[in-house]
């Protein structure tokens, strides 16, 4: 198969490309950075340098492709995030339709069943709605919260001796490791079910309290507490750390959605399986090695 991979050689793109090349597929990796060309080609794939928001570039790249892994870059500039996410989805959809790509696997998220009140996830809801109109096989791969996002909390742990956000320590959160996402994407790209399908990819379902305990033990801070912030405290902390205000507000809103339970309600009610292999304790070793 001729397969297009977006996301360059990120935490998902690199293991995914490696798996697909090893399986004998003709793989082209889209990257906005020309400096990645050598690294991509060293994996046995081809490189297409350009922006996923450029429909003309995407169309040229997708010509003759059998399948695409469509991932919208996070943040998209730090302003007008939801609108930019939706526009990138429209560019993808236009190119997919015109190139007549038969198989699409889209990286989505838990909470994408909701149109609003979910922070940045709302942009993925909009893309799902756009892709539902495509005349092709589409799987919406709804991922849990990335374990690797805990790396963003290292300064807080080192500086204040705490970890936390604007939701409590005892709620259930579906987590996922990018390597498990790559495995699920590889599986989905290599078969073509009819119509539109939703698959959740989750590695572990744990509480923030579990995360504090397990990660704390791994970095020799067994008493590391999970602290629930108010929405205002969470927003202020992110902006003080240099996160653009629009993005900080979106992430604070996502925390509110987690606290209310609405972001994970569809996952819990669907009785979806937990397919990922990398559990919190496994990630804790990775976290400690980079702490």
From TrEMBL:
InterPro entries hit by this protein: Ergot_Alk_Oxidoreductase (IPR051604), NAD(P)-bd_dom_sf (IPR036291), NmrA-like (IPR008030)
Pfam family, one: NmrA
Domain (NmrA-like) ranges: 2-201
Protein name: NmrA-like domain-containing protein
The organism of origin for this protein: Flavobacterium panici
Taxonomic classification: Bacteria, Pseudomonadati, Bacteroidota, Flavobacteriia, Flavobacteriales
């Amino acid at each position: 198969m001729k397969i297009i991979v977006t996301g360059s050689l990120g935490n998902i793109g690199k293991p995914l490309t490696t798996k697909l090349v090893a399986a004998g597929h003709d793989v082209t990796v889209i990257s906005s950075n020309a400096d990645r060309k050598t690294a991509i080609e060293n994996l046995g794939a081809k490189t297409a340098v350009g922006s996923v928001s450029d429909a003309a570039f995407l169309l040229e790249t997708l010509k003759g492709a059998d399948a695409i892994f469509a991932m919208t870059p996070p943040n998209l500039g730090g302003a007008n995030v939801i609108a930019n996410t939706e526009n990138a989805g429209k560019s993808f959809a236009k190119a997919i339709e015109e190139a007549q790509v038969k198989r699409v696997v889209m990286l989505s998220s838990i909470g994408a069943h909701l149109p609003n009140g979910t922070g940045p996830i709302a942009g993925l809801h909009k893309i799902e709605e756009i892709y539902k109109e495509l005349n092709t096989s589409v799987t919406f791969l709804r991922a849990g919260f990335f374990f690797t996002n805990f790396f963003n909390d290292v300064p807080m742990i080192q500086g204040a001796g705490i970890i936390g956000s604007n939701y409590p320590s005892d709620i259930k959160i579906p987590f996922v490791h990018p390597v498990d996402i790559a495995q699920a994407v590889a599986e989905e790209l290599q078969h073509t079910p009819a119509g539109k399908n939703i698959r959740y990819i989750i590695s572990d379902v744990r509480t923030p309290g579990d995360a504090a305990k397990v990660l704390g033990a791994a970095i020799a801070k067994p008493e590391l507490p999970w602290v629930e912030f108010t929405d205002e405290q969470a927003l202020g902390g992110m902006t003080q750390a240099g996160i653009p205000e629009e993005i900080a507000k979106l992430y604070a809103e996502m925390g509110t959605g987690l606290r209310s339970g609405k972001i994970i309600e569809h996952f819990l009610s669907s009785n979806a399986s937990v397919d990922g292999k990398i559990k919190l304790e496994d990630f804790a070793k990775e976290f400690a090695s980079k702490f």
